[in-house]
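Researcher: First entry.
Model:
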Amino acid sequence: MIKSNGRFFGFPRTFWTANVMELFERWAWYGMFILLALYFTGSKDEGALGFTQSQKGLLMGTVVGILYVLPTITGAIADKFGYKRILILAYLILGSGYLLMSTVTSYTSMFLAFLYLAVGAGLFKPVISATITKTTTEKTASIGFGIFYMIVNIGAFIGPVVASKLREDDWKYAFWMSSAAILVNLILVIFFYKEPEREKVKEPLGKTIRDIFINLGKALTDYKLVVFLVIIIGFWTMYNQLFFTLPVFIEQWVNTSAIYSWVSGFWPWMANFIGTDQGTVNPEMIVNIDALYIVFFQVLVSSLIMRFKPVNTIITGFFISSIGIALWFMTQNGFYLFLSILIFATGEMASSPRILEYIGKIAPKDKIAMYMGTYYLPLAGGNFLAGILSGGVYTRMSDKYYLLSLELQKRGLEIPEITDGFSKNDYFNKACELTNMNPVELTNFLWLQYQPSDIWMLFSGIGLSTVVLLFLYDRLMLKTK
């Protein structure tokens, strides 16, 4: 309820303003990010950019990796100049960045536009987390961050749903949607956000940043922490295939028309909403059920694992996610994705929220804050490695167009290379003509002949290796701390 002191359900107005801004920022980010692999690699005659898988992987992995390094510095910048000023700057960069990404088409210009956007995201990320921290007390922190995490996932679910519908008319509309969501945040921060009380930073910014790197370096002299962070890179490498690889794999190999027909049989409106004019379901709609599962089940999973040690739930969660990701790639039947993504999400819900908690547990009591500053490093490394695997490695193992080129060479059939004037769709349609197969027949032939599903062994293997290494680390190096 609202009380005379301006608090709503025990939290000040700024707490709720920060949560609403987080919702719209996640709406904007995931509305764009869940489409990105498809937009980068889709056929040019459909409005996409036609990049190779390697170009996509390098671009996404490098830029998002840099994004997760930035909060180490940008948090200090916000403390120096004020949260409100930095939020306004972040929103100006983000809003213009999404618009810029909707207009550029060359690889270099897109790389620079995405990097520019990442700077805005890097400025935003630590400020909102700090605002939640400063507007909660020791008594309300648990429920406060629970609300925050729920809001994150609501935004992460809604954004892709809206973006998926918009991109059917034009890809750029999805980017415009993201920019519009950021405009809402700009209005909120200017008129409703009140700077939380914080200690003024009097020392020069350069010295503050230098001290951050000194403290980071000190934390990284602890070989136990370094080993843990390196191991955790494996999980984030596996996890990020949800965005880097799965949408492309569904687009290239999975039959989603059966899902559309099944839903249409008992709920025509929903089939029209999630489906396309071709009677299929867009890949991002299927991938997005990961966020939906988290919205519905995170509280339940968290309540079940609270009594267990963080390391045990992390190991168990990694194992469950490894099983889920294996099942993503094993079949062309789209119905299995609902189950496999649920399994993956269950592991994610059990492990991801407790990684930071575990870092706090292995840190010396007088160095907890210093150790917490290393949290984003494995995310950066995981994104970079995920980009490599979803690029050149995916190309050689599972990319439909690469495998098709091998088959055409084997048969001695010649087709012009994919260019601005000869799209990926043109290439595939010409191959259908020369092989005397329709698109479904050719796709099924390549699936059986080249086994693109084998990539499950790579991604699941990374996850299972992480499980084994983390188990050995906890038993041998920390002895069940």
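Researcher: Second entry.
Model:
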Amino acid sequence: MNNKPKTKLLTISLLCCGRPDTTERCLKSLMPIRQAIDSELQVVDTGCSKETRAVIEKYADEIFEFKWVNDFAAARNFQLDQANGKMFLFIDDDEWFLDTKYIIEFFKEKECVTYNIGGYFQRNYLDFDGKEYDDVEVIRMCSVTPETRFVGKVHEYIEPAYGNAMFMDARAGHFGYVYANEEDNIKHSMRNIPLLQDMMKEDPDNFRWPYQLAQELRATKNYEELYKLCKENYEKASKLEDNESVRYRGSFICGVVYALRHMANKEDEVIAIYEEQKKNQTIMDPALYSLAFMASCEYFSMHENEKCKDACNSYLKFYEKYHEDKAKFILEGGLFINNAYDDTSVSMVYCFLMTIGMDEDDYGPLVHYYRKIGWNSGVVRLNRGFMMMLLQKSAEIGYKKELRDVLNKFFVNKGFRDLIEHEIEEIYTGLTVEQLDNMKAAFRETDGQKEMELFLHIRTMEKRISSVEYWENYKQLRDILEAYAQVTVKWQRAHDNLFPSETATFALAPETKLGCAITDFLEVAETDSTKALKIIKDMFGHRSIMTDTIQALGNLYSDYVKVRVAKETDPAKFQEMYNLEEQVLRQIADLDAAGHTDEAVATYQQLVRIISDTYGVESLHV
């Protein structure tokens, strides 16, 4: 209980036990607030190293020590009891403010002290590069009164929570949910699960604790337990009509569906829950249309096009009306709900509608929705079914303006270009040469036309080369592979030039590595057969479709070397045998033409045996 006289407007406080680098980043980000606002900075040391303690001492006005008792609320209440400010703002030592402008503006307003509770947005990064993230509202501010306190051993919250509330348009970066491996992720959640189970026993009528436990079960991928927990608490909340219970209903029913979607053969149950809520709605709108999103995913996988379109359109109608209304999602959204409205989910729905449209030869949805996807955003996710349909139609139709406009978007950055080439690589062996030519035409007038013509030409050549069952001679195969090698180098150059690398080096693609190996082989084939054969051996593994062709090259080149050595060793004898082979081959042709096929075959077998015994090859005409 804090009964201290208030000598400051604001107390900024943080619990600290972390690494010195993250702690200093956090403390530095607070300095603009300290300089602009009548404030103090208090740090509660829950077990810092000497190095971290030294960092804290550079910034903090006061440092307090608190022995960790496995109870976050106890530590937070200790923090609160030390405050000398009328208002209390707290932050964790692994967070840092990206911008404090709106925080400073808020605390400069006289009315700031009339707010009982508030917070900011925690930007939870999903990767170590900071490219992907979720912005989540967190309660991190309150007025300081004798009644103010924290509740909960973990995922603690502030009471009382009524009165004026303010969410400041500020974001605190946070890498705390990015783990080096899945084991660390599970370990973090397993630490919280027993504490939450204790809170459920101590406070069985508070839905906050099963709600938070559901979050940890999701992190540990314990979908069976998640299903049971959410189902039980949805049924319990359905018997109550207060606003808080109705809000929790949405998260619990969406948690049920989330768990079902991660269990085998539960598609019908997912759809049944959505259809029942659509007819007899017992949850708030953000939860209902989150269910619509999840149902649309199942309908799409089941090729239920009309039902998928209906679910998608219902979802988009709600999204387009409310997606900028942050207050609605704060008040009516929550766990398992709000993620359905992030950019990835919205793009997924656009992809569903575009894919179904193309499947039905209706290009209206494609024209309408491709413009809504944030192609220039840092991270964009596209549904693979959409990619496959787009390429399927390109292979089927060839050039079409509606397709071209979308294909052109794959050349706004390197990532998209690499994505579409990867998807073509996955399917091209199942396409005909005609379909590959159509696909080449589909990229006409795009920014990647030159590169894609060469990229697809390589695959057309590979299809044609690999379809040859028998090569007549070494020279024929050598000339074709030389042409292939030249195309791979041209493509690699176009590929690298379209999106120049910041470094001087480029990674060679497998086809280019094969092309370079072929070029290296041709350079030594006439002078160093040992080296040439080693190069052929190293060609294997670059392009699986070319395996048989490389094997044929090795066999034909080996025969070619044997014949060349024989000719150089005894030219007269070689010429005599060469002429004999030509003469016998003419005789065989005459026998075959006269209908004496068996005799022709026997004569040919005898010829092969003589040449093989003499030179180790079946023919001198290699």
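Model: Note on the second entry: The chain has 25 helices and ten strands.
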